[in-house]
Request: fold
Amino acid sequence: MSRALPSSRAMAIVMFLAIISWAAILSSESKYIAYNTTQRIVPEKINVHLVPHSHDDVGWLKTVDQYYVGANNSIRGACVQNVLDSVISALLDDKNRKFIYVEMAFFLRWWRQQSEAMKVKVMELVNSGQLEFINGAMCMHDEATPHYIDLIDQTTLGHQFIKAEFGKVPRIGWQIDPFGHSAVQAYLLGAELGFDSLFFARIDYQDRAKRLNEKSLEIIWQGSKSLGSSSQIFTGIFPRHYDPPDGFTFEINDVSPPIQDDTLLFDYNVQERVNDFVAAALAQANVTRTNHIMWTMGTDFRYQYANSWFRQMDKFIHYVNEDGRVNALYSTPSIYTDAKYAANENWPRKTEDFFPYADHPNAYWTGYFTSRPAFKGYVRMMSGYYLAARQLEFFKGRSSSGPNTDALADALALAQHHDAVSGTERQHVAADYAKRLYMGYTEAEKLVSSSLAFLADSRSSARQGNPTTNIQQCPLLNISFCPPSEAVLSDGKSLVVVVYNSLGWRREEVIRIPVSSEKVFVQDSDGREIESQLLPLSNATLSIRNYYVKAYIGKSPNGALKYWLAFPASVPPLGFSTYIVSIAKQTGPSSTISMVYKSDGSTNNTIEVGQGSLKLLYSADEGKLTNYVNSRNMVSAFAEQSYSYYSGNDGTDEDPQASGAYVFRPNVTFPIKSEHLVPLTVIRGPVLDEVHQQLNPWISQITRVFKGKEHAEVEFSIGPIPADDGIGKEITTQIRTTLKTNKTFYTDSNGRDFIKRVRDFRTDWDLQVKQPVAGNYYPVYLINLGIYVQDSNTELSVLVDRSVGGTSLVDGQIELMLHRRLLHDDSRGVGEALNETVCVLDKCEGLTIQGKFYLRIDQVGEGAKWRRTVGQEIYSPLLLAFTEQDGNNWISSHVPTFSAIDPSYALPNNIAVITLQELENGKVLLRLAHLYEIGEDKDYSVMASVELKKLFPNKKISKVTEMSLSANQERAEMEKKRLTWKVEGPAEEPKVVRGGPVDPAKLVVELAPMEIRSFFINFDYLQMFVS
Ligand SMILES: [Zn+2]
Reply:
């Protein structure tokens, strides 16, 4: 804008005003000013809600403890202890000031260090509403990569702490930083917690532009198709980010001009700053409905010297309100939400989710869906283990002195942070999260072993004290390392395998354990021989075992491991079975040694794999999968699988955006050809068939087809990804079929609802896709549970064992991104390249990962049953524990099979127990989840019921209280308080169905599709389990 010369008349006015203001300054006294900060909402004005906050990551560039105490400040000057100390004292100075605190992992650390006198003061601040807990979970979790059960658990932990210490129930969701927002966050971790609103900053830049234009940044979000308006939530998206408007940041080193109102000093600027404030307020009011706007006064690790902020806000509130054009007040998101509600406005409706997130045409934040795949796998593995461990802890009775599951709970909670399982933290911080998980696991492992021993021990004397039985587990079983199964057999004793099932239905699954003998046999607990099979280990398996055992425990594994022993186990619901593995006698029964067939690629035969109704056909000369045939349901489909990689963009083209921990910016895609390395090796036997493939020197896979199962399990090993050529690589696999899927595919939201995706399309806006390198630009979606595509006849489903990025780039195809190794930082703050390495002594190499995916092809409409049932089984794998016996001393003195529930009962196939836990306060928390969406399956998308009396057959239930999702308030109380928002447009949904109240006599819980219900159960007495 060019500036015009002022006319003489205008000059005269300016002079006149200057004289007046000078006079005003002379008349005011430059001494103590009592700022009036008492302002409340003024209905007829634009109200600027100043919300003081600090965004405190529970680990990112520094570890959670380093951030808390202010260590490692050369990386980043950040000390959360300073934040809390100085905020509390600033709040005590003026009762009109307010502050919200979000991350309970930090608050807990601070709280336990405070004196009783300080606790009393803080309690008063909380009671008066000056200090409000917002969100109130242990961390501000990521919304893309965690499983919904982890989200519930980490939120429950924080909410239970707030309830116990302060008697408060957080009202507001505050997910300001996560990189995109999930449907499950809105309805489950929002409405079902009883939250009245949810706020965040990051959405796609094109979406934001449209919403700014249409004043639709504030919406009613209905995240669930099944629960519809019964689980909707008022959602506010910030106009820009979660910091204040430009010029209003006041940390001690910030550059915003402070208000200077002392007339004895230079640079008096009150009117100028008031004008700035009013201008910024009007600009925001222009894109916001109603006359309430929120300013998020703070950002990352701010308020380390809180007075620096509060001093300025005091003055702004004082002078802006003297000015009178807008109304400024200390506020919180709760006050803001109530004001929005009182305005009685109609709000736009939003369904589905806010993925993927792009902040720039070349910057899709979809790389983190796969970043740090080994850590993501570890988090998922620990999550399933934690679920099982809490059940076993409950069966035995919780011990507050330990061992218990508390440390694992804390570690898992931290791991859900938006810079933890997301993979966007620095390397040393990732190591810190993994170490905490390991320490938590180690304690939970002791608990699991002692609980299993307790439940198995039939002698009442042992039940009183500590069971003496030595039960071991094998946390490194995934890299084929299990000392008890390898060693026990070698000295002539028998191996006892206790198999625990944490699901509510009976499972028949194949167990695989490493053994070093080739003459063994397996018996069930009645002494019947079980068909079993020995499978040779692949070279890839052995080399991962040798390298990583040394990396983890500091020494090479002993002995020569020869085989995997595989046998089918049948395990009752919430219970265990026992199997005995012994050395075979010369003449006795013995496990079948697999037939090994190596295709040398010289014939053009078809190789058929599979002992049951599922057959996979491979082309011998090309060494690859060609067909999938299921003789039971007559599905026969062309199916191919391959690997390729994207070269990560290094940011040296016209845009400096590199591919990195957050951003996926591919350059070129390269197919990976097997290059006549090793042809197919097929291993056959009575229990399962395996196909071993070496795709290149650093990618191999084993495809398993189990007799009696109708899916293929693919175990891949990828790494070390070569990077000597200076190029980062992102490794993908593709499954191709001829399904005509019309650009459409489905991916899950945090392992729960499936959301329809259409290639190059967004429901909420007209997507503009910029293609910097032609044909090379692909947004990727997030998969926690699975992905599927379908046409009018057939559907192809893939399930995963951890969160990964995935998409469908061409019709009939599914692509998964399995591993990434990148050499450049992507400029989103972490300041490190995602280049994970593993070292043994001084020798380091790129990280190798091993993981699984599962695939199945069904007639259309049949896939949901498999995705939901097997999806739950993948999340909760059978837990294996080992001990030994001489003769048959274990079997004769122990309970070989156990189920916590009535022997005649099992949960319906559409229900899972997602929490069964005795809390610290002695209450028993039960959470049941319906696994199907409305309309998803013709048999299972129906109301289901659970008989509590049969779930707890040996206990007398005296009271059942339905609670909110985080169990911090009664459900009825929560429903009573729920705000009823008005939504624009016609109501389009059918009537929402939910389970009815629980009759105290019948004690039957009903669950409608996608419903999760949480209960506190009171028992008359906690009776020991006796079978
Ligand atoms: Zn953050």
Summary: The two ends are 85 Å apart (CA to CA). Confidence is low (pLDDT under 50) at residues 1-8, 772-777, 1023-1027. The CA atoms of residues 57 and 351 lie 29 Å apart.
